[in-house]
């Protein structure tokens, strides 16, 4: 989002106007309902199992989940490997499953 004085809107290129949000502190508008969080830091540690990553397509969600997944193996009673499988670290959902395209 781009927050700027309402008079600045016309100066923005047409392809960026959708990002524009009028900001005029003199109008005393309550912007606390907007849920953008910005943290000034060089590094942000996220717990993968408590973080949902939202991506444009199902392919990107699949790639993200499996690219960072751990491999696990099930063993039989004699200690021989039977099955291997992915254990996802990250949770991801794609916007295209909700009808939003790229």
Layout of helices and strands:
Layout: E1 2-4, E2 20-22, E3 52-55, H1 58-67, E4 70-75, E5 81-87, E6 91-94
Parallel strand pairs: 1-2, 3-6
Antiparallel strand pairs: 4-5
Q: Your description of this structure?
A:
There is one protein chain. The chain is mainly beta and 102 residues long. It folds into 2 domains: 1-38, no CATH class; 41-102, no CATH class. The chain is 10% helix and 26% strand. The protein is built from 1 helix and 6 strands. The protein has one helix spanning 58-67, and strands at residues 2-4, 20-22, 52-55, 70-75, 81-87, 91-94. The strands form 3 sheets. Strands 1-2 form a two-stranded parallel sheet. A two-stranded parallel ribbon has the order 3-6. The protein is elongated and about 75 Å long. The chain starts with a strand and ends in an 8-residue tail after the last strand. The model has no long low-confidence stretch (mean pLDDT 86).
The biggest beta sheet is recorded as: 2 strands, parallel
Helical coverage, percent range: under 10%
Category from helices, strands and their pairing: mainly beta
What series of H and E elements makes up the topology?
A: EEEHEEE
Distance between the termini: 18 Å
Q: What shape does the CA trace take? A: elongated
Strand residue percentage: 25-35%
Q: How many strand units?
A: 6
Name the poorly predicted regions: none
Strand order of the largest sheet: 1-2
- List the domain count as a whole number: 2
Number of helices: 1
Radius of gyration, in Å, reads 22 Å
Q: What is the average per-residue confidence, as pLDDT, rounded to a whole number? A: 86
């Amino acid at each position: 989002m781009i927050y700027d004085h309402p008079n600045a809107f016309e100066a923005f290129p047409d392809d960026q106007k959708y990002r524009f949000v009028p900001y005029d502190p003199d109008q005393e508008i309550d912007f606390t309902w907007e849920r953008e969080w910005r943290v000034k830091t060089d590094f942000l540690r996220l717990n993968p199992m408590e973080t949902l990553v939202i991506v444009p397509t199902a392919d990107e969600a699949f790639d993200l989940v499996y690219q960072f997944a751990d491999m696990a193996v099930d063993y039989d009673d004699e200690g021989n490997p039977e099955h291997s499988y992915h254990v996802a670290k990250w949770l991801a959902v794609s916007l295209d499953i909700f009808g939003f395209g790229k």
